[in-house]
Amino acid sequence: MIGGGGKTGLMVYLLDELEKAGKKVIASTTTKLSADYPRGLSFRVADSLSAVLKQVVKPHSPGERVTLVQGEAENETGKMAGIHSDWIDKASAAHPDIIFLVEGDGSAGRSLKGHLTHEPVIPAATGLLIPVIGIDCIGKALDDESAHRPSRITELTGTEPGAIITGELIIQLLFHPEGYLRNCPTDAVVLPFIIPRISPLQFRKWKGF
């Protein structure tokens, strides 16, 4: 899961639904997650490949949302650091029966994101890539309130700073070689997840707050 705000909420939903369907599922991130996340993610520290492989097979209780992290992020209070993407690749190869749900970048809660050259961090073993986009940004000005790194979006698309965000702009960003699908494995299925325009109260309820 990459892109705009709502990735972690989607990850929690998929964790619950896949476990209900009898699937083995582990969550993780290649970036950072909030350390005080309110929806009961069960953080397990794995600071090496061997630790990841041990945690993957360690039993957990029904409904426990097992989430692998390296520990507290340096110089960022309240954040948990993600694990290396190649560790996920190797764990996936060793345990093909397990579904790995991975959050591949951050967006500071904004609906749209301009990716830097090192983003998003997508494991090579990814079979399904889910770009997350908040449709509520359409009709708003392209600025820090509606987008994460709006200057990067203007650089990639040629749009003027503060221009009105349109569906066409979002599609241009989604398919730009340096945009959302940068680093997408060639054989991965791409399934965009569009968060609808909803009220703040409805959004908080959906996210589990």
Structural class: alpha/beta
Main pleated-sheet profile: 4 strands, parallel
Determine the mean pLDDT: 90
Q: How far apart are the termini?
A: 20 Å
Q: Kindly estimate the percentage of residues that lie in beta strands according to DSSP.
A: 15-25%
Into which percent range does the helicity of residues fall?
A: 25-40%
How many DSSP E strands? 14
Task: Provide the domain count.
Answer: 1
Overall geometric form:
elongated
Order of helix and strand elements from N to C terminus: EHEEEHEEEHEEEEEHHEEH
Give a brief rundown of this model:
The chain has 209 residues and is an alpha/beta fold. The chain has six helices and 14 strands. Helix 2 packs across helix 3.
